[in-house]
Automatic annotation (TrEMBL):
Gene3D superfamilies, per database record: Leucine-rich Repeat Variant, Zinc/RING finger domain, C3HC4 (zinc finger)
Pathway: Protein modification; protein ubiquitination
Lineage per the UniProt record: Eukaryota, Viridiplantae, Streptophyta, Embryophyta, Tracheophyta
SMART domains (UniProt xref): Ubox
EC number of this enzyme: 2.3.2.27
Coiled coil residues, start to end: none
Enzyme class: transferase
Annotated catalysed reactions: S-ubiquitinyl-[E2 ubiquitin-conjugating enzyme]-L-cysteine + [acceptor protein]-L-lysine = [E2 ubiquitin-conjugating enzyme]-L-cysteine + N(6)-ubiquitinyl-[acceptor protein]-L-lysine
Protein name: U-box domain-containing protein
GO biological process: protein ubiquitination
Length: 407
């Protein structure tokens, strides 16, 4: 199309491309349907891109059939010059279509076909995903997963989980579902993690992402009633990094972090081997957000005696936490220093203090006191650790004689 002059009114004001499905907004300006719908969905309090007049997300978009025919005619006339003809757009789906698919989803003979269509439509555009949420597709899919669990059937699970990730389960809807069906969906998603699928990584990652959302929406009462299999399965995910994506791994960590405030949960995490799994994961030098989540969980687990014992029993625990200080983010620094403070306060045996010297903990804490960017409260926490064991650490020849002066 190089060198061909396209009539300006054929171009969408947003994309600046020839319009395939021109629609006119209430402000009188015509846009390509996909472009203006994306604009309205992204900006909840948006205005018309051209006139700047208010244009609510639910604004009527009237098909401009006359302009579409003109564009199609022009494309046909210029086909020999490399212009592709714009096909006649299919009628836009409305909410009734998704209500129909929900009914089909509840029927054994047509549920797989309905899932496949939902999968296709969810991947197609944001408008479809918006309609799915508004018509109750997330609840229908969660019920489908629960039914699969109860019937021990994996047929359709991959599609159901993929659609849930596409449309993102609204927290408000997840809360209502948990109130109606208690913890059945959590048990169902945990069950999915032990099932065999192809492709394994994608399905299990989607299951963990859905599980994270449900845990976020769970009441404190439900979180207090979680059982050992929940923590065993999540810890299993942490130990098998090849079975989930990075996004899925972070979702698993987030789910654990949400459950940490309850002492009973922390004990079950420790018993499931979470401390060792977290340290091993961190030794792999993961991305920033993963490190922040890991250190956050380790801090909670080190608040209990069993957690501290497990942490110190791993030869890489103190070393990796020390190494992350001043290397990742202020959030990571906060959690790392608080972990070291707990170790220093409750289990500062001679061997532990010696290890803190060997892995550079003492040096790192001293460095924190000398860096202007360190938060004042963290400096005070680091200073407290150093003061607590000054006499012991002075005995080590590798410690600079002036280290005690920094505080």
């Amino acid at each position: 199309m190089d060198g061909i002059e396209v009539p300006k009114y054929f171009l969408c004001p947003i994309s600046l491309q020839i319009m395939k499905d021109p629609v006119t907004a209430t402000t009188g300006i015509t846009y390509d349907r996909e472009s203006i719908e994306q604009w309205l969905l992204r900006c909840k309090n948006s205005s018309c891109p051209v006139t700047q007049q208010p244009l609510p997300p639910e604004s009527d978009l009237t098909p401009n059939h006359t302009l579409r025919r003109l564009i199609q005619s022009w494309c046909t006339e210029n086909a020999s010059l490399g212009v592709d003809r714009i096909p006649t757009p299919k009628p836009s789906l409305d909410k009734s279509h998704f209500f129909k698919l929900i009914k089909q989803l509840q029927q054994p003979g047509s549920n797989i076909k309905a899932l496949q269509e939902l999968d296709f439509l969810a991947a197609k555009n944001e408008r479809n995903r918006k309609f799915m949420v508004e018509t109750g597709v997330p609840k229908a899919l969660l019920l489908f997963i629960v039914n699969c669990f109860e019937e021990i059937s994996v047929q359709g699970l991959a599609e159901a989980l993929r659609v849930l990730v596409f449309i993102r389960i609204p927290l408000a809807e997840a809360k209502i579902f948990l109130q109606e069906y208690n913890d059945q969906i959590i048990k169902s998603l945990i069950w999915v993690l032990v099932c065999e699928f192809k492709p394994q990584v994608m399905v299990k990652s989607h299951a963990v992402l859905a599980l994270k959302t449900m845990i976020q929406a769970a009441s404190s009462g439900l979180l207090e009633r979680l059982e050992p299999p929940f923590f065993e399965m999540i810890t299993g995910v942490l130990k098998q990094t090849t079975t989930v994506s990075q996004q899925g791994m972070n979702a698993a960590l987030h789910a654990l972090l949400i459950t940490c405030p309850w002492g009973r949960n922390r004990l079950m995490m420790v018993e499931s081997g979470a401390v060792s799994a977290l340290i091993e994961l961190e030794l792999g030098s993961p991305e920033k957000r993963t490190t922040e989540l890991i250190l956050g969980i380790l801090f909670h687990l080190c608040c209990c005696a069993d957690g501290r014992a497990e942490f110190l029993s791993h030869k890489g625990g103190l070393a990796v936490v020390t190494k992350r200080i001043m290397k990742v983010s202020p959030t990571a620094d906060d959690r790392a220093v608080f972990i070291l403070s707990l170790i220093s306060k409750f289990v500062a045996t001679n061997s532990v203090l010696e290890e803190m010297v060997e892995v550079g903990t003492v040096t790192k804490l001293c460095m924190m006191l000398q860096v202007d960017s360190t938060a004042p409260y963290l400096k005070e926490k680091a200073r407290g650790i150093l003061r607590s064991h000054t006499d012991e650490w002075r005995k080590f020849p590798c410690i600079d004689k002036t280290f005690h002066k920094v505080y």
